[in-house]
Amino acid sequence: MTTVIEVQELHKRYGDTVAVADVSFRVDEGEIFGILGSNGAGKTTTVECVEGLRRADGGTIRVLGLDPVRDRAELTQQLGVQLQDAHLPEKLRVGEALDLYRSFYRTPADPAALMAALGLDEIRGTRFGKLSGGQQQRLSIALALIGNPRVAVLDELTTGLDPRARRETWRLIEDVRARGVTILLVTHFMDEAERLCDRVAVIEAGRVVAVDSPAALTKRAAAELGVERATLEDAFVALTGEHADVH
Amino acid sequence: MSTDALRRLTATEFTLFLRDKVGPIFGVLFPTALLCVFGNIDFFTDPANGIDGQPLLHTYTPILVGFVIAMLALNTLPPTLASYREQGVLRRLRTTPVGPARVLGAQFAICLATAVVSVILLLAVARLAFDVPLPRQPFAFALSALLAALALIGIAVLVAAVTPTAKAANAIGSVLFYVMMFFAGLWLPIQAMPAVLRHVSEATPLGAAVQALSDAGAGHWPPAWRLLLLAGYVVVTALLGIRLFRWE
Which residues of chain A have pLDDT under 70? Predict the structure, then answer.
């Protein structure tokens, strides 16, 4: 299997605050790889370094063999990004946003198919400022995929979506992966990680405390807790709480 | 980066500029409407009340050109740029092949193009409806207007760079607009100001611009120091803007 994302000994500080102390992981082609962690654990900083939005203070990162900072021009063609709290101009319409972003890429996806898949058809003439949180989120996913990326980084994918929209989005992500796109998913929803991710990295206080499949993590947690069945949430709490040393 | 992307980006920003209405109304229609109001007041058209033997309306035409430039630069750019940064529009663009700098480029191009249209409209109405002669030294007039526009765009970027929110950028832009328009002679033409105030006015970007435009309108080249002063404002604000402006 080809490695698509490789992060080695990533270190990032903001002034005196260490945001990421030591993070390493590899993501294989076609995987849905989750990054789990509490708020402030360093998840977003880690993916921002992967996206090239921030320059790492230490360690190396390769995405499709490219350095996210040095090979920015090429990486942006192949990496689709969905950011937490990034908005579009209030008066920009949904269809216009997709047409605009489509023009940025060498080999864009078909906007009509993407709009149909994300249920954006009926709101294509609506201004961004008038969209509901869930609609904004769906547009943001569409914009991450409009460039036909080989890798997509999705940060807090389903935050603000109602249960039905969440399930539809999960199905969409699985379809995207079925087309061969590798996905890096940042989330704090354990059910989402359990449902979608092939493997997850659990990050706590800027360090990776575990990398494994959700099934393996829950099995280990069940054994440690002495129960028959544990959830990924149990595993996560055990890994990131005061008992983080047990594993 | 294809030219299609650049064209699409500029066209999209222009659509948003029109949809926002502030620029077209206050930057294009309002200055010419103001000219029409002045032109219908006898006091402004009677040479007996004028400065240097010409009606006040002639003195006010370059002031209104300054008004167009200041209105477009100070009242539309800072809130737009600050809100793009505040809402993460620029941050989102950083993750694409196009990057955020080209949005700023598109904004400047729209500001300049709208100023050209608005100034041509203003001069045409002044000439056709109120007999104000067209600038007698058109090249010097165009150069002065261009330098003034670039200097004011530079100041607008500085305002957007030092203000955290679109609201604050809007407020500071508006205050600067009134201060600069005062020194440009909107309430009291520079030629009628007391000596000290006149010297201060001539050192401000818009005051220098209006004087240069008046010189060119009357048919002679502005003194070199005036154009150099404007060029100096362009260079200094551009360098500071590049240093201080943040994408996030």
Answer: 242-247
pLDDT tens digits, B41-56: 988 988 888 888 889 9
Q: What is the dihedral of CA A227, A233, A238, A241, to 10 degrees?
A: -150
Whether residues A125 and A219 share a domain: the answer is no
Report the percent of chain B where pLDDT is more than 90: 90
Per-residue confidence (pLDDT) for residue A229, from 0 to 100: 85
**CATH number of the domain where residue A24 is located:** 3.40.50.300
Total number of residues shown for chain B = 248
How far apart (Å, rounded) are the C-alpha atoms in residues A28 and A200? 12
Structure confidence at residue B1 as a pLDDT band (50, 70, 90):
low
Q: Which residues of B touch A (CB under 8 A)?
A: 2, 4-5, 8-9, 12, 15-16, 19-20, 83-84, 87-89, 91-92, 94-98
DSSP per residue over B104-140, as a string?
Answer: HHHHHHHHHHHHHHHHHHHHHHHHHHH-PPPPSSHHH
Q: How far apart are CA B46 and CA B28, in angstroms?
A: 26
Do A222 and A208 share a domain, yes or no? Answer: no
In a shared domain, residues A46 and A155: yes
Please check whether residues A205 and A226 belong to one and the same domain: no
Residues A160, A230 within the same domain: no
DSSP H helical ranges for A42-93: 43-51, 72-78
**Tell me, what's the pLDDT at A241?**
75
Nearest to A149, CA basis, from A243, A66, A247: A66
Q: Could you count the other beta carbons within 10 Å of the beta carbon of residue B194?
A: 8
Instruction: Based on the fold, state whether residues A44 and A137 are members of the same structural domain.
Output: yes
Cross-strand pairs, A61: A7
Domains held by chain A: number = 2
Mean pLDDT confidence for B189-211:
95
Please check whether residues A105 and A172 belong to one and the same domain. Answer: yes
Q: Over the stretch B61-109, which tens digit does the pLDDT of each residue have? A: 999 999 999 999 999 999 999 999 999 999 999 999 999 999 999 999 9
Q: Are A91 and B89 in contact (CB < 8 Å)?
A: no
> What is the residue range of A247's domain?
213-247
In chain B, where the domains are located: 3-244
Q: Are residues A226 and A106 in the same domain?
A: no
DSSP β-ladder status, A32-37 and A182-187: parallel
Q: How far apart are the first and last CA of chain B?
A: 23
Minimum CA–CA partner of B20 in chain A: A91
Q: With a cut of 70, say whether residue B195 has pLDDT above it.
A: yes
**Chain A residues touching B20 at Cβ < 8 A:** 91
